[in-house]
Write a structure and sequence with these properties.
- By secondary structure, this protein is an alpha/beta fold.
- It folds into 2 domains: 127 residues, 2-Layer Sandwich (Enolase-like, domain 1); 238 residues, Enolase-like C-terminal domain (TIM Barrel, Alpha-Beta Barrel), CATH 3.20.20.120.
- Helices cover 38% and strands 21% of the residues.
- The chain is built from 13 helices and 12 strands.
- The strands form 2 sheets. Strands 4, 5, 6, 7, 8, 9, 10, 11 and 12 form a 9-stranded mixed β-sheet that branches. A 3-stranded antiparallel β-sheet has the order 1-2-3.
- Helix 8 links the parallel strand 7 and strand 8.
- Helix 7 runs parallel beside helix 8.
- The termini are far apart.
- The relative contact order is 0.16.
Length: 378
C-alpha cells in the first residue's frame, strides 16, 4: 500500500501561448495554416517532476477552440481543479475535468497529455509503455501536400518520394472538382506506382460532388479518401463508403467514442483518423481504437500541423496498439520554421523513431517557448 506521504501531488498547472511561423502557407479546403498557434501546458508536482502537453489551434472551419479559449478554461477551470490532486489517478482527473466544463477537447487534451507525461517521468516509463506498448518502435510517415497548382503539388510529391517517403497525403476539396482530379492524376504520374496516395478533402465537397470526385479516382490506386463531406453527414458518408471504389476514412466525423460508435453502426466509413487533440486525449483515443478494432476498421494517427511535443505524444499512441496503421501522419514539425523542443523529433527520410526517454519522450525548451511566446489575454 502506498503511504499518503509517498503519493505524488500536483502543485501547479501552467500555460503558455506560442506562435511558430510555418515554411509557407499550408492550404486545405477549410482554411490556411500560416503558422502554428498552440497552448503548451506544464503540470508540476511536489517531487519536481514536470509534465508537458500541447494543443494547437485549428483553422476556423475545423475547431471552435482558440488559443485564448484553451488558456482560459485551463487557467480558470482545469488547473484549479487539479492542484492538490494525486497524479496516479489520471482516469479520475480526466473524468472530473470533463464534468467541470464540457467540450473543450483540445484544452483537455493538452492537460491530459501533460498528466501522462508527468506520470511517465515520475516512474521512469514512456507513455507508450503505460498504455501497454510498445508493439513497434518506429513509424513510417505520410508526407503531406497542401492545395496548390497541380504542377507544384506533383513536384513536391516527387521530392518527398526522393527523400524516402513511400506515402503521400494530398489535400483537395476545392470548388473545382475537375482540377482536384487533375492534381491527383499529376501526382500519381510524378510518384509512379508503388507509392501510396492518401487524399484529404477536409469536408470540402457536397455529397453529389463527392460522388463524382470518387468516381474520377477509379484506376488511380488511391489508399483512401479522407472526409469527403461535412462531418455530420453520416448518411452521405455511408453512401460514399458503399460505392466501393475507394475506401473512405472519417476524420471530422469522429470527435468522440460516441461518434465512432454511430459511424460504425451506420457503416459510414472504412477507416477512422485519430488526432489526440480532436478526441480529447489518450483515454478517449483508446476507446475509439477498441471500437474500430472490434469493427475491423483501419486506424490512422497523426496531425498535419504541430510541434515535436504534440507529434511525440501521438507517436506514443501509434506505437502502443497493434491495430493502428504503421504509416502515421504526425509530420507537422516539418512544416515549421522552428520547434518547441531542442532537439526536436527527427522526421527525415519518412520515418519516426519512438523517443526512448520517459513520458512523451521529450520536453519543451524554455528558450524556445520564450522565443515563440505571444500575447494571449486570458
Amino acid at each position: 500500500m502506498i503511504k499518503e506521504e509517498d503519493k505524488v501531488k500536483i502543485v501547479a498547472v501552467e500555460t503558455a501561448a506560442v506562435l511558430v511561423p510555418s515554411k509557407g502557407d499550408y492550404r486545405m479546403a477549410r482554411g490556411v495554416h500560416d503558422a502554428l498557434r498552440s497552448v503548451v501546458v506544464r503540470v508540476r508536482t511536489d517531487e519536481g517532476v514536470v509534465g508537458a502537453g500541447e494543443s494547437h489551434q485549428g483553422v476556423a472551419g475545423y475547431t471552435p477552440e482558440t488559443v485564448e479559449t484553451m488558456r482560459a478554461v485551463i487557467d480558470h477551470v482545469y488547473g484549479p481543479l487539479l492542484v492538490g490532486r494525486e497524479l496516479d489517478a489520471v482516469e479520475a482527473l480526466v473524468r472530473d475535468m470533463a464534468l467541470a466544463r464540457q467540450g473543450n477537447r483540445f484544452a483537455r487534451c493538452a492537460v491530459e497529455m501533460a498528466l501522462w507525461d508527468a506520470m511517465g517521468k515520475a516512474c521512469g516509463r514512456s507513455v507508450c509503455a503505460l498504455l501497454g506498448g510498445p508493439v513497434r518502435s518506429r513509424l513510417a510517415l505520410s508526407a503531406s501536400i497542401g492545395i496548390d497548382d497541380a504542377d507544384v503539388m506533383a513536384r513536391k510529391a516527387a521530392e518527398y518520394v526522393s527523400g524516402g517517403f513511400r506515402t503521400v497525403k494530398v489535400k483537395v476539396g476545392t470548388p473545382d472538382v475537375s482540377m482536384d482530379l487533375v492534381r491527383v492524376r499529376e501526382i500519381r504520374k510524378a510518384v509512379g506506382a508503388g507509392v501510396a496516395i492518401r487524399i484529404d478533402a477536409n469536408e470540402g465537397y457536397a455529397p453529389d460532388v463527392a460522388q463524382a470526385f470518387i468516381r474520377g479516382l477509379d484506376g488511380l490506386d488511391i489508399e483512401h479518401v479522407e472526409q469527403p463531406v461535412a462531418g455530420p453527414y453520416l448518411d452521405a458518408m455511408a453512401r460514399l463508403t458503399g460505392m466501393g471504389i475507394v475506401p473512405i476514412l472519417a476524420d471530422e466525423s469522429v470527435h468522440s467514442p460516441e461518434d465512432a460508435h454511430r459511424l460504425i453502426a451506420m457503416r459510414a466509413a472504412d477507416a477512422i483518423k485519430i488526432k489526440l487533440t480532436k478526441v480529447g486525449g489518450y483515454i478517449a483515443a483508446r476507446k475509439i481504437i477498441d471500437l474500430a478494432e472490434a469493427a475491423g476498421l483501419k486506424l490512422v494517427i497523426g496531425q498535419g500541423i504541430c510541434s515535436s511535443i504534440e507529434a511525440a505524444a501521438e507517436a506514443q499512441l501509434a506505437c502502443a496498439y497493434p491495430h493502428i496503421h504503421e504509416v502515421a501522419e504526425m509530420v507537422g514539425p516539418t512544416k515549421l520554421r522552428g520547434d518547441l523542443a531542442d532537439p526536436g523529433l527527427d522526421l527525415e527520410g519518412g520515418f519516426l523513431a519512438l523517443p526512448e526517454a520517459p513520458g512523451i519522450g521529450l520536453s519543451p525548451s524554455q528558450a524556445l517557448l520564450d522565443k515563440y511566446r505571444y500575447p494571449a489575454p486570458h
